[in-house]
Design a protein that fits this description.
Distance between the termini: 19 Å
Order of helices and strands: EHHEEEEEH
Number of helices: 3
Strand content: 25-35%
Shape: elongated
Length: about 150
């Protein structure tokens, strides 16, 4: 934070609010991921975003089997991608992910794909929730479900 204040944390020690640092994952653009113009194919941005989201959950100790074992599965309700600069084979990027919690059944993954020189290549916003696999409805408090599964905030 600009004023040097510490970010607030919940009872599990998970930083809360916009002061929390985003989680990042390095990725190198592979040649087979590019289109005929040599640009990263638009669908691959979604794969990079998904990879970063699962990497964040795994870093917290939440694996796919743990979610399913709890009777929930993550779902994406809406995704918006803003393409800012092209990416080409061999480009090293970082894909960041930060969770913006709301009051309802959904939350937002805010993500940035950034080149090594700091240039923003894309901004991705994904509205997500946790689906109760029995009821086929979004759970009322997805944050509470995830916090209960966290091994390493």
């Amino acid at each position: 934070m600009a004023d040097g204040a510490e970010a607030a944390a919940d009872a599990n020690g998970i930083p809360a609010g916009p002061a929390a640092e985003p989680f990042t994952v390095p990725v190198t653009v592979r040649g087979y991921e590019t289109d005929t113009q040599g640009h990263l194919n638009q669908s691959v941005y979604l794969q990079y975003a998904e990879h970063a989201r699962w990497s964040l959950l795994q870093a917290c100790g939440i694996g796919q089997s743990a979610l399913v074992g709890t009777g929930v599965g993550p779902v994406t309700v809406e995704t918006t991608i803003r393409y800012r600069r092209e990416l080409r084979a061999g480009d090293a990027v970082e894909v960041s992910v930060a969770i913006v919690w709301g009051e309802g059944r959904t939350f937002v993954f805010e993500q940035t794909v950034r080149k090594a020189d700091g240039t923003v290549a894309a901004e991705i916003s994904a509205v997500c929730g946790l689906l109760d696999l029995t009821e086929h409805r979004l759970v009322k408090d997805p944050g509470a479900v995830l916090r209960a599964l966290v091994a390493d905030p």
